[in-house]
6-pyruvoyl tetrahydrobiopterin synthase (Channa striata), 148 residues
Amino acid sequence: MAASRGTSSAAERVGYISRIESFSACHRLHSVHLSDEENKTLYGKCNNPNGHGHNYKVEVTVRGKIDAVTGMVINLTDLKKCIEDVIVVPLDHKNLDKDVPYFANVVSTTENVAIYIWDNMVKALPPNLLYEIKIYETDKNVVVYRGE
Ligand SMILES: CC(=O)C(=O)[C@H]1CNc2nc(N)[nH]c(=O)c2N1
Ligand SMILES: O=P(O)(O)OP(=O)(O)OP(=O)(O)O
Ligand SMILES: [Zn+2]
């Protein structure tokens, strides 16, 4: 006897699928709205004028119906392409503050990097699929953004 899987039919099943990608970038935490002294006090070593780097790890999660025919929420090959276009090409081996126009006047915290990725990923994916952006700035610093 097949194990009970609830009352939904396969066509109504909802799944979450993620892909992880890494990119390396440097940045400096410095707000254009604060004085140099305020920036130094607030961001400490992360305000070093010469910047510093991270090997960021990004987990992109989409949520949607598991198609009854294809068995997929989204083709991971398509998600991979979106991640390449939205994350790797504009951010990998870049100086976030100098090479990415968005961060010219937006401080390049991981929270703001997550917002940047969300706003561009939501335009690249089919509608109503993007669920979450999770970014590891270091092994210990993690940000989650769900478009709120
Ligand atoms: C550590 C670092 O190298 C950082 O750049 C940290 C410093 N603190 C911090 N705090 C946040 N709320 N968000 C950050 O992205 C961040 N980066
Ligand atoms: O200061 P870093 O770049 O090592 O980043 P961190 O993870 O915030 O530092 P810590 O390892 O002291 O938490
Ligand atoms: Zn940093």
About this structure: The radius of gyration is 19 Å. The longest strand covers residues 14-27.
